[in-house]
Write a structure and sequence with these properties.
With 446 residues, this protein is an alpha/beta fold. The chain has 2 domains: 209 residues, NAD(P)-binding Rossmann-like Domain (Rossmann fold); 138 residues, Rossmann fold. The chain contains 15 helices and 15 strands. It starts with a helix and ends with a strand.
């Protein structure tokens, strides 16, 4: 491959690990990436608009569970990792990785405002010889149709003076086995040179890097990965609704189906789906498909099923209370868990927050316990931030009902069985816990 002088110089800096790496966005994706790059020997500059995050990084104060506190302390102490709020500092970065949120609008359409804002600010400080990589999950075409045109207003030529690629994040918060370094990494460049420089960059620090033919392929692969999970979760959620109507225990059904050694992968139901990707990515793909006069009916149906699950949970709880001649309005409800998944402190798009919101709207008095999420603001329209309460016998007896919305492994479910009156278990947490002869709670599964 015949490279331009800028490309050749960047390649040399990457292979010798003399490149400066800028990471924009120091959240669940950006901070682990920044620490991993510093472990590989790169000088890393983290950038975030949140001054508190920047200060915490510079103090080597960890706030992301998937980051090793020891690795963060070592990187900061060695001077390999610093953080800033100043975009001007990115002029010395050879690689700029963008890891910012990509939420949905209230109408379930892509909100690229964070990408657009960062792209404009990066464009204003660009110089020849820089590689810009977008990691934020988005619809196929974003890198070439949105990011590239903005960066080109810098006057630099893509593929010769500046280099642009997409490499989707694959972060799974709380996963004890797979993390930034050992999760295979996809990368697709706007040109061959861009793609090869992207591969060269990531291969210095990550175990396996897979180059694909274009950013759009990498973007589509990412949204497909998460749509696959969303569709299968919707399937099992609908099965849970049917089993509820038929009086069957969906958990027993799934355990039985899971004994088949081929042809099936078991997913589990719950109060909905959460996290940054799974609730959002299918809508990104459905929105983009309409540009091609294509309706992703299967995907949109899955999204609709998953969105309805928090309302089903509230309706089921209301029916349970009615059986005891208790109204939901004025009832005291204790939610166990507001993180979107077990053993994580990530409450982004958590279905538990929607359950909390709907219960409150229907007049219930709701408190929550979560050992990993000390405070939470359920939704933008919710009036205040809530703080977690302690899980005590007194609190459990206070509640008219307990709803298990997240099945953290460090919750004392024996205490729940012994002191709660009524429990709606949306995660089968009590079904997996040992039997307790002193249990008094009436337990109803999803």
């Amino acid at each position: 491959m015949a490279w331009s002088p800028d490309a050749a110089a960047l390649a040399e800096r990457l292979t010798e690990r003399r490149a400066v790496v800028g990471v924009v966005g120091l959240g669940y994706v950006g901070l682990p990436l920044a620490v991993e790059q510093s472990r590989a020997g790169f000088q890393v500059l983290g950038l975030d608009d949140n001054a508190d995050k920047v200060a915490r990084v510079n103090r080597a104060e960890n706030y992301i569970p998937d980051v090793s506190s020891g690795d963060l302390v070592e990187a900061v102490a060695a001077g390999r990792l610093t953080a800033t709020t100043r975009y001007q500092d990115l002029t010395r970065a050879d690689v700029i990785v963008i890891c910012v949120p990509t939420p949905l609008t209230p109408n379930k359409e892509p909100d690229l405002s964070y990408i657009l804002a960062v792209a404009e600010r990066v464009r204003s400080v660009m110089r020849p010889g820089q590689l810009v990589v977008l990691e934020s999950t988005t619809y196929p075409g974003t890198t070439e149709e949105v990011l590239r045109p903005i960066l080109e207003t810098s006057g630099l030529e893509v593929g010769r003076q500046m280099f642009v690629a997409f490499s989707p994040e694959r972060v799974d918060p709380g996963n004890p086995r797979f993390h930034t370094r050992n999760t295979p990494k996809l990368v697709g460049g706007v040109t061959d040179t861009c793609g090869e420089l992207g591969r060269l960059f990531y291969s210095q620090s990550l175990d396996q890097v897979i180059r694909v033919s274009s950013p759009a392929v990498a973007e589509m692969a990412k949204v497909f990965e998460n749509t696959y999970r969303a569709v299968n979760i919707a399937l099992v959620n609908e099965m849970a609704l049917l089993c509820d109507r038929m009086g069957l225990d969906v958990w027993q059904v799934l355990d039985a189906a899971g004994t088949k050694p081929f042809g099936i992968q078991i997913f589990y139901p719950g109060p909905g789906v959460g996290g940054h990707c799974i609730p959002l990515d299918p809508f990104y793909l459905a929105w983009k498909a309409r540009e091609y006069d294509f309706s992703t009916r299967f995907i949109e149906l899955a999204g609709d099923i998953n969105l309805r699950m928090p309302y089903f949970v509230v309706d089921k709880l209301q029916a349970m209370l009615n059986e005891g001649e208790k109204s939901l309005k004025g009832a005291r409800i204790l939610l166990l868990g507001v993180a979107y998944k077990r053993d994580s402190n990530d409450a982004r798009e958590s279905p538990a927050l929607k359950v909390l919101e709907v219960l409150t709207a229907r007049g219930a008095l709701v408190v929550y316990h979560d050992p990993k999420v000390p405070t939470v603001k359920p939704q933008a329209a919710f009036p205040r931030t809530l703080s977690a309460v302690a899980l005590t016998p007194e609190r459990l007896r206070w509640a008219d009902a307990v709803v298990i919305t997240t099945d953290h492994s460090d919750v004392d479910y024996g205490l729940v069985r012994r002191h709660a009156r009524l429990v709606l278990d949306t995660r089968n947490a009590l079904g997996r816990a040992p039997a307790d002869p002193e249990a008094v709670a009436r337990v109803v599964k999803l």
